[in-house]
Model the fold of this input.
Amino acid sequence: MTMTQTSQQSVMPNSWYSTNELRNINKQDLINKPTMKPKKNPIHMDYVDRIEDVFDKFGFVLKNYSGKGGHNNVYQNDNFVLRITKLSLNQEDESKFDENKHLDIGEKYYDEKIFLKAVKKDLCPNIYFLGNLEAKGVVYRYMIMEKYTYTLKAFIQFRQHKTLLEKSNYYEDEEAIYKDISDQIIVLLEKTIQNNIVYYDLTPNNIVMRLTEEGRLQVKLIDWDADLCREEPWLRDSENRDLMNKTVLYLSIMLLDYFMFVYLKRQIFKHEYSIRYRDDMWECLKELLMDFDSNLFAYMLVNYFFKELNASLYEKDNFEELQHEKRVKITTTGYLTMVDKLW
Done:
């Protein structure tokens, strides 16, 4: 037990072994004022909350488990989302660090920097608390976020537009609903790109929505982990920043629309392509798709659509090791296939 934990316990009831920061949170205040500034404990073994106290504070039970994301185990109830990292803090000396088991503290701080920047710019649901969670003697990092009602994937799959038209007078028809969703996504992406961030993993699972009091859908982006949401120097330093911004936006909405076209049999950006595309984008597009070292667009294209590109599973899993000419061929095929299907 650390000195910090000892001093905390001396002023707490015997049943409380978590941090003062968690103890002092008022759940109802968060529900009533969701835009309160996020509270945060350092990523450190001196500041640890028991999983029982976290569950009790925010009203989670085991049946709220909603599955695994790329980096987290996720629980959701009516008001909150709890994200617990799959990797844990290394509780031994640095020589025992295992990248397959342990969090890289520097990378995690950068993750949280990107997340908090997204909250500040109103790009993602509010974050209430960042802390360290102990479960069965192992310590993980956790995040408490504001709950949104649907992912875009679930909204499309379960045809929630029909239910929405019955409940709300805000939209005239199905087309108006999806036009509003696509318009809001474009605004979120424009703001993201203006802040020098490229959101690579733009799929319907990472887009969430809820209904406002006036009956309109409010759209946000989630999952801002820094491996696939990057502050890109080439975007900030581009000689023609406006053109590069527009090209990144165009390519991003194409990848999202192609994902929906392939896996959900739905397009929501078809009306945007002729508006967004410009002939002088071609050089920027080639740079984004063929510069395999500086960005991830080609990797996302191959990762999600290798079957549509007639690439093999081996080529998908080992794309980085393929000869440059082979990568160019696969990526070119991918882009032309998208254009052919979507336009």
Observations:
- DSSP finds 15 helices and twelve strands in the chain.
- Residues 150-289 form a domain with the Transferase(Phosphotransferase); domain 1 fold (CATH 1.10.510.10).
- The two ends are 62 Å apart (CA to CA).
